[in-house]
Amino acid sequence: MNIGILSSKRIDSNSSPSHANHYEGSKKQSRLAKFFENSIVARRMLVFIAMLGMCMLIGDGIVTPAISVLSAMEGIRAPFPSVSKSLVEALSAVVLILLFLVQKYGTSRVSFLFSPIMGAWTFTTPLVGFYSIIHHYPSIFKAISPHYIIRFFVRNGKEGWLLLGGTVLCITGAEALFADLGHFNRSSIQIAFLFTIYPSLVLTYAGQTAYLIKNPDDHDDGFYKFVPTPVYCPIFVIATLAAIVASQSLMSATFSVIKQSVVLDYFPRVKVVHTSSSKEGEVYSPEINHLLIILCAAVILIFGDRKDIGNAISDDHVLENSTSTLVALYFFVFFVMAGVYVSAVFTKIPEGGWIPFAFSFVFGFIMFGWFYGRQRKIEYELTHQIDLDRLRMLLSDPTVQRVPGICFFYTNIQDGLTPILGHGIKNMKSLHKVTIFTTFRYLLVPKVAPHERIVIKKLGLKGVYGCVIQYGYADSLNVEGDDFVSQVTNRLLGHIQNSSGFVPSIAPEIEDEISDLEEAKLAGVVHIRGKTRFYVGKSCGWFDRFMLAFDEVLHNNCRSALPTLGVPLPQHIEVGMLYEA
Predict the structure, then answer these.
(1) Number of domains in the chain
(2) Residues 358-376: b if buried by 16+ CB within 10 A, e if exposed
(3) Which residues form the K+ potassium transporter C-terminal domain (predicted)?
(4) 364 or 185, which is more confident?
């Protein structure tokens, strides 16, 4: 099934694998698949919903650190009642701002502290929970019986359904297990969860419940109040440090999501810095980090009530996990379970639940606008591409000169040449003696083997070559310009030398080709990329007018793609062209 967002025009999936997504399956399609194939509106809505679910994780990176640190810091008010709520909010904002400011140094510098902190958390809180169970209500584990939940709903009816919204925070964070798959293998996560995290949570929640059975009026702050006074201060310190570590994990996850979205061309280009030379997953984005600082501080200072922020997280996590069922395909079971919780947490929207929706819709709209504009450009380039015969005809014009040097001409299509090339030759009347049409191809693998990373081929014209740079989701494209040029030219040199084979008659041609390459490299290198925009005519509908205008705003305010390769600005040339929408 093709889940694209353009009209049903033929697009070669091999030409742009990151934009034309084709899922091969059986010839027999379901009614749902046929419905999406035939409805462009449904396809656009499905893509937008999927993006929205991913943006919920970005929303977590804003809301979860805020409530985690704020909840932990509020424990200071028990030993010091004179501390005001406003001061707690200010201290929480300061802690978060400091945490964001150290992100540029990478987590490796402080990660050695994470394990002891989380180890202390998972060991001490269940001990407190066990003490509370013994002291307040030893028979608490009879609540495991389904008999009590049935009685609960029979007795409370609608009120019981509404109370489900307050229990969602007990199961949030499960999606972090899937984020951890990028750093640990599955078995290590399963062992850690089943033998440490899960028992710790069960004992802690059971201890809180046992305390609340005897002290039902303390439900607004059930954690710190169930902690015995002699161990209150150590638990407060551990809880605050654990909240900081948890916030750090969400920040790292947000940076990773943004990085992968940029790599897949689903998000406007932002600067992504690898903070570790040995761990590919440790990344940092200055622009996103500064944005998160502002939004997290705003959430704390404007929506300082933990209840409101908790409602926001409830909506965020449930909808985020519900959206994942579209991918996991455990639709029916998950839909029924998550649907009950979603229906309950929807009642929390006026009480703060709208916060993650606002963040997610803004980020989701940005992603959809960028993706839509990119797909429209890909569609235009594929339908107006230049073939070799057309290029040969353009070069046969006596007014067109082959100038010295190497030109890297970047294009989004592989089987054919971008229409920007014809536009440039017509107006500049020149083409470099060695021109390498370069395309970046994303592969669904972690890393591409070094010998497969650069694929070179001759295009049948003297000095004209095709180059495909293949990379996986864990590969980095942040290479220095000179190193990038050397890698490609060395691979091209090897390709030329190997093309002679055992045919002595073509050896002089090979020597001339190698000589031309060396001379062109000495003459200088230039990198050319198209800078395109759409001409929106009167025949365009309102949707295209709005989305293409928004796409232009995004492109005018994002980073250029070439500097991410370390290309020096003096070697960077942009050729402008209007595409007809």
Answers:
(1) 2
(2) ebbeebbbbbbbbbbbbbb
(3) 404-579
(4) 364
Average of per-residue pLDDT across 544-565: 80
More confident: 211 or 187 = 211
Give yes or no for a contact between 436 and 406, defined as CB atoms under 8 angstroms apart: yes
Domain membership of residue 268 (yes or no) is yes
In the block, tokens 């939004």 appear at: 295
Let me know whether 179 and 312 are in one domain.
Answer: yes
Mean pLDDT for the chain overall: 78
Q: In this structure, is residue 517 part of a structural domain?
A: yes
Q: Does one domain contain both 155 and 197?
A: yes
Whether residue 185 is found in the same domain as residue 238: yes
Residues 100 and 179 in one domain: yes
pLDDT tens column, 305-314: 555 555 555 4
Specify whether 392 is located in the same domain as 358.
no
For residue 30, give the DSSP letter.
-
- Per the structure, the complete domain to which residue 413 belongs is given by 386-580
Which residue type is seen at 579? Y
In this structure, is residue 378 part of a structural domain? no
In angstroms, what is the C-alpha Rg of the chain?
29
Smallest CA-to-CA distance from 488 within 534, 460, 527 is with 527
Whether the Cβ atoms of residue 400 and residue 431 lie closer than 8 Å to each other = yes
Does residue 243 lie in a domain region? Answer: yes
DSSP state of 283: E
Instruction: Indicate whether 515 and 369 sit together in one domain.
Output: no
| Confidence grade of residue 435 (pLDDT, cut at 50, 70, 90) | very high
Give tens-digit pLDDT for 148-159: 888 888 888 888
Of 278, 251, 263, 269, which is closest to residue 104 (Cα–Cα)?
251
208 pLDDT higher than 80: yes
Measure CA 112 to chain center.
Answer: 26
Q: Cα dihedral angle (290, 295, 300, 305), rounded to 10 degrees?
A: -160
- Is the CB of residue 419 less than 8 Å from the CB of residue 384? yes
pLDDT in tens, 120-164: 988 999 999 999 999 999 999 988 888 888 888 888 888 887 777
* Domain termination residue (choose one: 350, 373, 396): 373
Choose among 261, 246, 228: nearest CA to 134: 228
pLDDT of residue 393 exceeding 80, the answer is yes
Cβ 3 vs Cβ 46: under 8 Å: yes
Q: Which residues, 6+ apart, have CB-to-CB distance to 79 below 8 Å?
A: 232, 233
- pLDDT given at position 203: 92
Please report the sign of the dihedral spanned by the C-alpha atoms of residue 486, residue 562, residue 442, residue 415.
negative
Same domain, 272 and 408: no
Last residue of a domain, one of 373, 408, 439: 373
My answer on whether 324 and 237 are in the same domain is yes
Q: What is the distance between the alpha carbons of residues 336 and 339, in angstroms, rounded to a whole number? A: 5
Distance of CA 539 to the CA centre of its chain: 35
